[in-house]
TrEMBL record:
UniProt entry tagged with the keyword Repeat: yes
Entry keyword set: Kelch repeat, Repeat
Domain BTB: from-to ranges: 26-98
InterPro entries the UniProt entry points to: BACK, BTB/POZ_dom, SKP1/BTB/POZ_sf, TLDc_dom
Residue ranges annotated for the TLDc domain, each copy included: 300-482
This protein's name: Pep-cterm sorting domain-containing protein
CDD domains: BTB_POZ_ZBTB_KLHL-like
Keyword Repeat: yes
Species: Anaeramoeba ignava
Length: 486
């Protein structure tokens, strides 16, 4: 029988004493030479440096003069950091803070301390904010830290509004900013806000943030210098009037203006999807994003952070005109949790989309093409084009759309002034109570069940929300086209 005795703390302390006792068998010198400081000499031991750092091991194994002379001069590191690094090499201990985290990563990369670099990276990720992310992003590029680079890019995209208002936003390189604004994940801001951020960034690069030059000259300079960057803006999401203003200001070329007018005609007048795709296919790659709408869901709090869910809803809605012009007409957390308010805001609006999120984590809803009409008899009304859907459910099933039953004459919606929205047929599939706090799900009453579910089964009742009536509404959003904004 054997047992291993370990004394890491004493070993660490002994090596610390060895480092501090400069006359104890030292055989190498590290000299810190910074312009503003007198040279500082650290006496240390080749054996420890070489086994702890690939950088120093490479120095000692080569015929470099530093190896032969027994000293090396370093001008790109402060005395404090050199002391921290030597302490780490001798004792394995390193104190990291918000103030030294970035430089710790830089030094770790220089001296090939992969473990410390990983620790520094994790610390930076845990403490990054909108002011520091631009500089960290640049460091990740400089030292080839792909993991940190990806993290920073994702952070900027997710927090673009706040990052674009930070004092360091202009430090982001053009290539990275181009990648950021080209990302389909940048959905939390309107295209107008994204363009404003890009213009502010460009002004800073051209030292024009406080210029007294006319807007025309400023915008022309921006377009000439950063045209490839501007081509990542989805100008197809602006109105014709706004585009005309951009042309007059010199921000959009006549060529792009002409193409946008053709695009608007095909999309909004002809509403010809095939023709639209043919139009896009003939565009050069450098201009393609100008004519590609982001998969954003207008102002939804429920699905705004999921490109998958936004993309699925856009696909299922199919009606591009409705999708582009719909707005949030009712939100329970803002407008109130009662059926009367719901109907006062949502009745007689025509095509309407309902999204429900429960406190248990389910997300589901439905679309009616005829809309709510609480003044009618409390009957089910046939809606040929209605559907219900699940985006997130307890069973982990993927997002799915379920069409109205073809042979059920009452399948669609129910007009009932005393409740929230009801989708169903002979029975309700989704029914929201009068206080918009809960409801019932009995999947299969008016909508097509998946093949693995049976009507009135427990599984069917629990599929959408996890239970028949033991679920609580966290948020309910209703979307329809407000004619004022069309």
């Amino acid at each position: 029988m054997t047992k291993i005795f370990s004394s890491y703390l004493k070993l660490s302390n002994d090596l610390r004493n060895l480092l501090q006792n400069t006359n104890s068998h030292s055989d190498f010198e590290i000299v810190i030479t910074r312009k503003s400081e007198s040279p500082k000499i650290y006496r240390c031991h080749r054996a420890i440096l070489s086994c702890r750092s690939d950088y120093f091991n490479g120095v000692f194994r080569s015929n470099m003069k530093e190896s032969q002379e027994g000293r090396i001069e370093l001008s790109d590191i402060s005395e404090q950091f050199m002391e921290n690094i030597l302490t780490y090499m001798y004792t394995g201990q390193y104190e990291i803070s918000l103030e030294n985290a970035i430089e710790s990563l830089i030094i770790s990369k220089k001296f090939c301390f992969e473990e410390l670099a990983e620790f520094s990276t994790t610390f930076i990720k845990d403490n990054i904010d909108t002011e520091s992310v631009a500089d960290v992003l640049n460091i990740s590029i400089q030292f080839g830290c792909q993991d940190l680079y990806d993290f920073c890019m994702k952070f900027v995209i997710q927090n673009f509004h706040d990052v674009s208002k930070s004092s360091t936003f202009a430090n982001i390189a053009e290539h990275e900013l181009s990648e950021i604004i080209a990302s389909d994940d940048l959905t939390s801001l309107s295209e107008q806000e994204i363009l404003q951020a890009v213009i502010a960034w460009a002004r800073k690069q051209l030292n024009m943030e406080t210029t007294t030059l006319p807007h025309l000259q400023v915008f022309q300079s921006i377009r000439e210098k950063f045209e490839l960057l501007l081509n990542k803006i989805r100008f197809c999401e602006f109105s014709k009037h706004e585009i005309q203003e951009f042309v007059q200001a010199g921000l959009v070329s006549e060529e792009i203006h002409s193409l946008l007018l053709d695009f608007f005609t095909i999309r909004d007048v002809d509403e010809d999807h095939v023709k639209l795709e043919n139009f896009k296919s003939q565009l050069p790659d450098s201009q393609s994003l100008i004519f590609e709408e982001r998969i954003r869901f207008p102002r939804s709090l429920i699905v705004k952070n999921s490109n998958l869910y936004m993309g699925k809803l856009r696909e299922w809605i199919a009606d591009l005109s409705f999708y582009r012009h719909m707005r949030v007409g009712f939100r329970a957390s803002v407008d109130g949790r009662d059926a009367t308010t719901f109907h006062s805001k949502c009745d007689n609006k025509g095509k309407t989309l309902v999204i429900i999120e429960t406190t248990e984590g389910s997300i589901f809803g439905g679309l009616t093409s005829i809309g709510w009409r609480s003044g009618h008899a409390h009957n089910y009304v046939r809606d040929e084009n209605a559907f219900i859907f699940t985006l997130q459910n307890p069973s982990g099933s993927p997002p799915q759309k379920f069409d109205v039953q073809k042979n059920n004459p009452s399948a669609g919606i129910r007009d009932f002034s005393d409740t929230g929205p009801i989708f169903g047929g002979s029975n309700w599939d989704i029914s929201v109570n009068s206080t918009l706090t809960s409801g019932w799900t009995n999947f299969g009453g008016g909508y097509q069940l998946p093949s693995n579910l049976e009507t009135d089964s427990i599984s069917a009742k629990e599929f959408l929300a996890g239970s028949f009536n033991q679920w609580t509404i966290k948020e309910l959003e209703v979307f329809f086209v407000d004619k004022r904004f069309k």
